[in-house]
Amino acid sequence: MKRWKTVIIVVIVIGAISFLLSGFFSDFNTVKIGNRIALIPLYGPITLDGNKGFFDFYGISTNNILDALKKAEEDPGIKGIVLEINSPGGTVVASEEIANAVNKIKKPVVAWIREEGASGAYWIASSADYIIADPLSITGSIGVIGSYLEFADLLEKYGVKYQQLTSGEFKDTGSPFKKLSEKENELLQSKINKIHEFFIEEVSKNRNMSKTKISEIANGAFYLGIEAKELGLVDELGGKEEAINKVKELAGIKEASIVTYQKRSSIFDLFSNTIAYSSFYIGKGISYGLNEQVNRNNFEFRT
Amino acid sequence: MVKNAVIEKKPASIFKRGFAYIIDVLIIDLIIVLPFNKTIKNLQGTDTFNFYYNFQYLLDNPEKTAQLAFIGIIVAVLSIAYWTILEFRLRQSIGKILMNIKVMSKKKGFSITQCLVRNISKAITLLFLFDVIYLLINKDKNQRYFEKISDTIVIEEVIKI
Hints:
A: 303 residues; alpha/beta; 2-enoyl-CoA Hydratase, Chain A, domain 1; eight-stranded mixed sheet; 16% strand; B: 161 residues; alpha+beta; elongated
């Protein structure tokens, strides 16, 4: 009985101390759940799946960004979004999907361009409500690239012949093992031109600038932040502080804490990616794996 | 007590010790951690576990990290106080009472310093992990490392007729 009396006294005293101290902390410089700004990093080339390999720390996965945007929009505590952009661009559809998603968001979005926000990354930035770039950021590069390495002459030099067995004249267009015919060249160039037109139209709508004006500067050239501001491609020169302050201003709030939305791979993801790639290449042969990599990287449209 | 009954003291089994620890942790959660729950959630900036959170929030908000660390220290100090005071006064914490095991000093006398030293590893997860691994490796001695340096042992009393 005496034992339990001691236990009760000790528990009550310790509980009371904890309760009193927690009361002291509850008013101590806390931010209510509700005033938050989502910071979504976009680092690296943009592809649908993030182009993950064994060392998976560089590359934007469209799927992950769309998830992050969705979560930020659904969270009533998030009052605004900052897109932290440091990307040279990426594939067309991957960039477009993110840009469309940003366009649809009803909360204020500020794009903050750091080292580079070019091509597809600029497409995404242009969808935001406001763009802030460093004076020396690399941005613009409103254009499309579909270049690839062609090995036809090299193969011929070593007596390797390419046997074309296709149905349809243009079925193997873009194969690195044969020369590009004039008709194929025209075909690919027409596609690139169409994509470029689309890109210009989107940027012109997003930035509320005339198509003519955008077309004049959309020759694929990149611009430094200071140049981009003069051309109307960015709104302000600055950094993180300016981006956060702008989003607070647009959201009509004074104080907010920052929440970074970034998916990190766990050690299991890292190993499963490695095992998946290794298994595939071991099963099909290393040369097949390299060949596929060459084919995949050699031809695709990128903005 | 039955005539000719003998009370045998033997080192407490690891299972009893483990269950006693779990009971104590639940009690500590209730009386020490629970009052801070709302503050911790406010400082973390979210009231639900968010896959994307990943402590980047704390890196972006260092003043909140400092406050959370301070709360962590308070919780650790009060937890050690719970174990130390109860084991010094009664040789048992609540978990140990329920599992019928107790702390005993291997040398003459039993000081509060011994109690403090044997429980100090419970404040730091990695240190406690090391302590438990030491216990598992040295099953014959049945002592955690910090029990060894504080000259204490956890025993159970078995009545033999």
